[in-house]
Each structure stands twice: as structure tokens, then as C-alpha cells.
Write a structure and sequence with these properties.
Blueprint: H1 6-14, H2 29-38, E1 46-48, E2 54-56, H3 58-67, H4 79-104, H5 118-136, H6 149-172, H7 174-184, H8 187-193, H9 208-214
Antiparallel strand pairs: 1-2
Helix pairs in contact: 1-3, 1-6, 1-8, 4-5, 4-6, 5-7, 5-9, 6-7
């Protein structure tokens, strides 16, 4: 699974939703042609139902799969909870994941152009981690005291960032990392994500003064 699909696959498996997974190979013309037939933007993930219903974008897909259970508690217990689930998922998808991608992908020879440069990505990462850490100083999970889809989705988005930046994140955001490891170890998530590999590779950081400016 990639960072945008780990939570989707975990929830589907836990709820007994059977998915026929098709892996897209960007270097295979036939594979890409098949993707374009269901998503003209050529982006993954894409959900195609047995009745032909097509849904794109990871957040709606995650919400749809989760809502297939009439007894799920992963979408919160109130309307406000539901919108808070959406809030944290949106932050993780649009901002946090873009910052992590801009930092991690170049380390493995890939290019990310969502943000201006490494410093810009680092400032965004620190801001997002500060927001998450601050929330978790007041609640056990992102939306109150019960696990929700927001927790699983955000941990999925953070995985590769934690793999690389775990030492810095542990030092600066201990509550965030405590929550991250707790959620990661939930069996329904870990069964899909697998063991977390913490890497020991050099990476750029911001000076302490710049971290304060970023916040």
C-alpha cells in the first residue's frame, strides 16, 4: 500500500469488504491505459464498484469504504466528529503528505515539485507536526478519546516521514510519536502496513531558530 491507501485497505480488511486490488504500473502502457479509462487524470487510488460505480480521490474512497459498515465507530459519534475526521484527513493528504514527499522522495532519486524546496517542505512538516502534537496533548486520539479513520489515515500519511525523520520527530514532538506508534500497532492497521522500518540515513534539518519561525 502507498500512504494514501494503507488506511483504506486496513479498514476494508477489518470490515470484511472484499477488494480486488489492481496495481498500477506507471511504466506499463497497458496498465496506464486501463487507469485512464476510469480516471482521466491518471491518478490513484480509484475505486470501481461491482455495479460500475467509480470513485476517485483517497478521502472519499476511505469514507465510502468505512461507511459500508452500519456499526462502524471510525467516523465518529456525532456530526461534529465526522467533520473533525474530515479536517485531519484533509490536512494529512493535502499538506503533510506533500511536505513528506518533498523531503523523502529526493533521497531515493525521485523528484517532488509540490513545494518550492527542501526548506519549504521542512517548515510545512514542522507546522503540521506541531498542530497534530498540540491536538494530541488534549485528546487521546485526533477526534476525542476513540480511534477514528482520521487516526489511521494520518498515520498512513506519516509512515515514510517517520521512517526517515524519527529521531527529530521523537525529540520535538514526543506526544505525536507516542500516538503514532500506538495507532500503527493496532492489529487491523499493522496487518496491512507491515513492520515499520526505521532508517538511519542523513537528512537536512532546519536550525532551531528557523523551527520557531515555522511555528
Amino acid at each position: 500500500p502507498n500512504p494514501r491507501t494503507t488506511a483504506i485497505l486496513a479498514v476494508a480488511k477489518a470490515q470484511g469488504v472484499k477488494l480486488d486490488i489492481v496495481i498500477h504500473d506507471r511504466n506499463d502502457k497497458e496498465s496506464h491505459s486501463q487507469l485512464l479509462q476510469v480516471n482521466s487524470l491518471g491518478q490513484v487510488p480509484v475505486f470501481v464498484g461491482a455495479d460500475g460505480y467509480v470513485l476517485t480521490e483517497c478521502i472519499p474512497i476511505a469514507l465510502y469504504i468505512t461507511s459500508l459498515s452500519d456499526t462502524t465507530t471510525l467516523l465518529g459519534s456525532s456530526r461534529r466528529d465526522y467533520y473533525n475526521v474530515l479536517k485531519w484527513m484533509s490536512l494529512a493528504n493535502s499538506d503533510l503528505l506533500a511536505a513528506i514527499g518533498g523531503l523523502v522522495l529526493p533521497l531515493f532519486g525521485q523528484h517532488q515539485v509540490v513545494r518550492k524546496n527542501t526548506e519549504d517542505c521542512l517548515r510545512a512538516l514542522y507546522k503540521d507536526c506541531w498542530a497534530l502534537n498540540n491536538q494530541l496533548l488534549n485528546t487521546k486520539y485526533l477526534v476525542g478519546d476513540t480511534l477514528t479513520l482520521a487516526d489511521f489515515f494520518t498515520v498512513g500519511a506519516m509512515m515514510f516521514g517517520v521512517m526517515v525523520f524519527h529521531t527529530v520527530l521523537q525529540k520535538d514532538y514526543p506526544r505525536l510519536m507516542e500516538w503514532f506508534y500506538e495507532v500503527y500497532e493496532v492489529p487491523m492497521f499493522k496487518d496491512v502496513a507491515g513492520d515499520l522500518q526505521l532508517l538511519d540515513i542523513p537528512f537536512q534539518t532546519l536550525p532551531e531558530d528557523d523551527k520557531q519561525v515555522a511555528l
